[in-house]
Every structure is written in C-alpha cells, then in structure tokens.
C-alpha cells in the first residue's frame, strides 16, 4: 500500500473513531437550514392538526394527528413542529449588517418528520399523508409546517392551525437530587410561572402524616447567558422558569409524598401530579442499597421524529429498562452527555419529560460532559464546540447538584454505605488544580468503617478504555487522564471508577499503573490493592468501536447499550451487574467480599512510610 493511501486510510479511521468517541452524527435539528427557508405557499396545500386543545385532564403528554395535502408532493417533503406557534420574521433579532436580508424563519422547529414516514410511503404519488406526533407541554402553543426542498433547502408550503395545552404554564417534570447533607432532598421542576405571577411551593411529608409546604428558588436565563450558536440563534427557545425546593431534616429510609405547585396572585393554587420518594439512609446505615450508573444517554422521540441518522438509538430502551426496574433502584447517576441538545434548547424539556418517571421517584444525579460544557474561550478544559453554545448553562440550571459552585461541576454525595466523588472532566483535574484538591479531599474524608464502598465517577475516561481512538494514541485513556489521579485512587483505595464518553461497556481488572493486581474475574476479596475501572457510556448514543488490540487488563467488553447496577447488601458484600438496555438481563457481573481490616491493609503506595521507633 502506498504511503499516501495508507495515510488516507489512517486519517479516515481516526475521523471515524473521533466521531464515535464524541457522539456519532450531528444533532438532527442542525441538519435543517432554517435560516435559508423561503416562501412557497400554496393555497391548494393544507396541514390540519387535531385535536387543537390537549391536556384537558391535566396530561403533560398528548398525541395529535397531522393530515396533510400537497399538490406537488416529493419524497423529501417534511413537517416541522414549531413552538411557539408563530415563527415568522417578526421573531427574528435585528440584523447588524444592512446588506443581509432578514431571514423569514429564525428559530428551529422542536422536531420534524418526513411526510412519507412509515405507513405514508405512497405520499410522493398521492400527495396525502396522515402523521402521528407526540407533544409534551412546553409552555407555549404549537403549529405544524409543511416544507418542500428537503432539510438543506426548505421551502414553506403550508402552515397548520395552532394547538395548545389547556394550561401551558403548568408545573412539570420534577427531578429529584441529593442535597448537600444526607437528610436533604431537592426537587427541581419547570413551569411558565414567573415569581411575579405565582409563588412556587412543594407540598410534602412522610407518607400517612400531615403535609407541610416549602418555598422554592426560581432561576431562568436568556440568550445573553449563552455563549454561541445555535444556542443563541436558531436553537434558542425560552426555557421557562426552573424552580428548586430543599426538603430538609428527612427521616432516614422513609417514604415521602410530594407535589409541586404555585400559589397564584389571586389566591388559588395550581398543582402538579402526586409523587413519592424514599429518603436516603443515614451514612453507614446497614440496609440493601442499589445504585445505577451510566453515561451518554441522550433523548429520543417515541413518535419516530428527529431520527435523521438515528441520533440516539438506545436512549428509549435504557429509559424503559430503568422504569421497569425502578422499584429496585435507589439512586441514579447519569455521568455526562445528558441530552445531546447541542444548543437546541427545546430538547432539554423533552429530556426532562422522558426521564420524569425515573427522576421524580429517585435522585437523578448528573455529571458534566463535553456536550454540556465545551465552548471555545469560556474556561472549559477542551477548546471545542461540543455544547453548541450552551457552555454549561443548561445543565447547571435544569438540574441540581450539591456542588459548592455549580459552574464547577464537581461534588461529593453519600448514599448509606456508598461515598461518591464526582469529577468534572471539562475542567482541569491535574495535580495542583482546584479540582485535584477537591478530589483528594473527597476521597480522604470518607470513613471507610461506615462507608466501605468508595466510588469515583467522571465523564471522560480518566482511567482505562480500549476504545479505538484511545488505542491509536497507545495509552488507552483520555490524554493525561490517569497520570495525576492514579496515585489518589491507590492511596485512598477507590473500589470502582466509572466513565462515559466512550459509547460502549468495558470492565478492567483491579489495576494500578497498567498492571492487574488480582487474577480473579468474578469474585474479589482481601485488601483493596487496585481500582476496577468501568466504561459505561452505552446509555443511548451511537456506539463506539473498540481497538483491535485487547489489553490484558480488559476483562469484559460489549459493543452494545446498557448500564451498571451496584447492590450493597451490607458493609462487606457488594454485587456488580452490567445489564443490557435491550432486555434488562445481566451480561457481566462480579462480587466483592471483604472486611474492614482489608480496607485498612497497606498495599503498594497506599500507606505512609513506617519506622520501628517506639
């Protein structure tokens, strides 16, 4: 093979690997050249949507039927869903360049579907189609527009009647998170009510007891809070108001009921649905405790819309498996690459709606990934555009984490016998940095007699992964990933380290400095002489290929979607399970059995030097 051809092949493979590592495929809405849309209105074309008023019984999700007729049908015709319903040039910000023509449409649709979707394959010959869309309540009305010319050259042919939810401002999509103390739970939700219009509150209490009411803080943001396009331009959509209430002094391991709502200025109340959660056990409490961890899930549409190149093909399967297993889950960690909205703000509402059955019942803890934070010249460690201009604002506002500074997304949290140290790979973690000091303090501060199970988690792979791209570099890690941190993992005897970013599943042996320190595969006991590193980035986004080389430390690899479940039975027994999202069955597992003296035992580089002096 000639040198030039070999170089071309290597570059092509590198590009493929990079695409897999960072989320293959573009955000579907970014394929639409909406700024270049032109008018081609046709009086003989029509788009009729029914029903026009939905949510009459308080529903936050509804299906509508879209019947369309076009006298000049084509296979690349498509329907876009716009919200707010009015999307003409009156909503466009002023152009600074007088030579530029103001676009007719300045906001992306919130979803789209081709007219010949599924059962409408004859549309190109008949000019008639009937499509089904699922809408969620997003604080504004909706309209449906028929475009010809495909996504790259859209021509507006017809616009539908307007559709609305009965109460577009309703409080929706509650998501729980651990507070800064073990006996505090936070409830965050979204509504259309500003604090000048209504006071946000939570009504809550132990199951079967008198309920009390707690106030909530309210946040929002505008375009100027964001860092670039599309978040500030075609991807912008008003996020509404995000409210967070802090439920304090909870009894351990107790069931609480709650509902979110608003006290209107006229004295009446608007309430959301009734929910319940189980409070955290006291740190060190001996009970069965179950944790789920995954990364890179994203969102998908149950109506089949937005599926250009099948952007997040495993997302709904993962969501549905977690819902099915919810009675046996106590807390969830989604370690980065949350929605893959990439600057299209409407997608965050759709994600919170998708995970609402989970996040409303158990704490849904998130970490920051490249698709939440990265934007050039904004302080992110990687000078990339992966966030689409969001630069962390959406993740920091839409979800609560118990960080001292939510713009710096590192934090610790406790759940019974578990202690978690969550790092932020989009900020520098290397020795001497603020985050490095946090990580060491987090690892050092845990009382392993009470909390024997010490977990480290981060988005990018700071430990070990035989991903194809990492294999090309030869280190099988994020560049400079573990060089500073592995001595901390070893010194403080971290049991497990979890990562996303690479969209597959892989488990290492207990390892230190590239060497397996135990030969077992399915059961571990004795001193903690190395950390098991787990890539669990197969939550939903396009899968990442493995290197053709399988390192000795790689015990199990799976090119599929899935998540990890940890079950602590007591202070000396832990079960690890990897489950596939497609069927919920266990495909990899191991157990750890040990006593407190095993945690105390000195292993290589874990104890300070000793002397014989008395």
Short structural summary:
The protein is α+β, with helices and mostly antiparallel strands and 614 residues long. The strands form seven sheets. Strands 23, 24, 25, 26, 27, 28, 30 and 31 form an eight-stranded mixed beta sheet that branches. Strands 22-21-20-32-33-34-29 form a seven-stranded mixed beta sheet, with no helix packed on it. Strand 21 (331-335), helix 4 and strand 22 form a beta-alpha-beta unit.
Q: How would you characterize the overall build of this protein?
A:
The chain is built from ten helices and 34 strands. A hairpin with a 6-residue loop joins β8 and β9 (155-159). The protein has 614 residues and is of the alpha+beta class. The strands form seven sheets. Strands 23, 24, 25, 26, 27, 28, 30 and 31 form an eight-stranded mixed sheet that branches. Strands 22-21-20-32-33-34-29 form a seven-stranded mixed sheet, with no helix packed on it. Helices cover 14% and strands 30% of the residues. Mean pLDDT is 93; it is low at 4-23. It catalyses: a phosphate monoester + H2O = an alcohol + phosphate. Residues 530-589 form the Purple acid phosphatase C-terminal domain. Its EC number is 3.1.3.2. Keywords: Glycoprotein, Hydrolase, Secreted, Signal, Zinc.
